[in-house]
Every structure is written in C-alpha cells, then in structure tokens.
Amino acid sequence: MIEVVRADITTLKVDAIVNAANAALSGGGGVDGAIHRAAGPELLAACRALGRCEAGDARVTPGFRLHARLVIHAVGPVWDGGTNGEAAMLERVYERAFALAREHGARSIAFPAISTGAYRFPADVAAEIALRVMLAHEFEHERVVACVFDDATRGRYEATLKR
Length: 163
Ligand code: APR
Description:
Elements: E1 2-6, E2 16-21, H1 30-39, H2 41-50, E3 58-62, E4 70-75, H3 86-103, E5 108-111, H4 123-137, E6 143-148, H5 151-162
Parallel strand pairs: 1-6, 2-4, 2-5, 5-6
Antiparallel strand pairs: 3-4
The chain binds adenosine-5-diphosphoribose (APR).
C-alpha cells in the first residue's frame, strides 16, 4: 500500500527521503530548502562533493540531522510546455530514486511531488506518473510514502490511486 501523507517530509521517520533538487545540488527553496535546513550544513558539503546531477538522475547523501538515514537528491525536469520529454524524464527520476533506495538498503522511502513547485510540472500529470512508478515498486519496500504538502495534492493523489 502506498501511504499518502500530508507532512513536512523532513519530519518523517523513514530510511530515505527524496529531495526535489536542482542540477547543481546547491540547495534552494521549497522542499530542497526545508531538507537542507533540517539536515544541517553537512548536507550542503556532502552535495558539493558530489558535483552536478543532470535532470532525470539522482544522487545519495547521508541524512545527517534528519530522522532519515539517507537523502536521495532527485533532479526533476523543468516544465517547458510538455514537448521536451518532460514526462519521460519525470518517470525516469522516480525510477532512479527507487534504484538507489534498493542499492542502499532503504526499507522505507518517502517522495515529495517532484517538479510540481518551482519547476511548474502540471500537478495532475505529475501525480499519474509518480503514483504509477510507486505502484510498480511498492513490493520492494516495507513503506512507500507519497508525501504531500497541501490538501489539493492530497486529493489528487487519493483520486488517482482510486482509479
Ligand atoms: N515537505 C514536503 N513537500 C514539500 C515541502 C516539504 N517541506 N516543501 C514544499 N513541498 C512540496 C511543494 O508543495 C511541491 O508540491 O514539494 C513539491 C515540489 O516543489 P519544489 O520544492 O518547488 O520542487 P520542484 O518543483 O521540483 O523544483 C525544484 O526548486 O528549490 C528549488 O533547488 C530546488 O531548483 C530546485 C527546484
């Protein structure tokens, strides 16, 4: 079962949380800013040591002061009208995050709604893609959490899962 949880992702007690990062892994606003604030400055130092991560790909760091042991920094696509491969790239970034979670032995994992904030990916299409990939991988983990930050996203996720 995928759990749809409305929360600040930094408060979740899971092995791995996924960050909606940028290609420079330099921290930012939104969920990225919240994760860096909660994890402490060691997180930025660890990200700097990794260098860049192109859109569609992901990298792992420790969680430092977070409850989560791992942060999977996933770089989603910036929405550019939809004809630039954004949907395939969003699917790929969720797949990469699951692959890294498996590789690092994470039994529980929480995802934010990657690309749906600053990167402007339409929320309804993003929800379909996110949940499709989560449903394909839920059997690999004890817990898969779809972490939403507002009621509109929660409603969208729950409706999509019902379908
Ligand atoms: N916990 C869970 N979800 C959150 C939190 C939080 N603390 N803060 C924001 N969100 C939600 C937003 O409501 C949105 O639905 O995360 C989703 C993704 O929004 P963004 O954080 O803006 O991520 P994204 O659209 O992928 O843009 C990435 O934003 O801050 C920068 O460095 C980041 O440049 C990168 C870009």
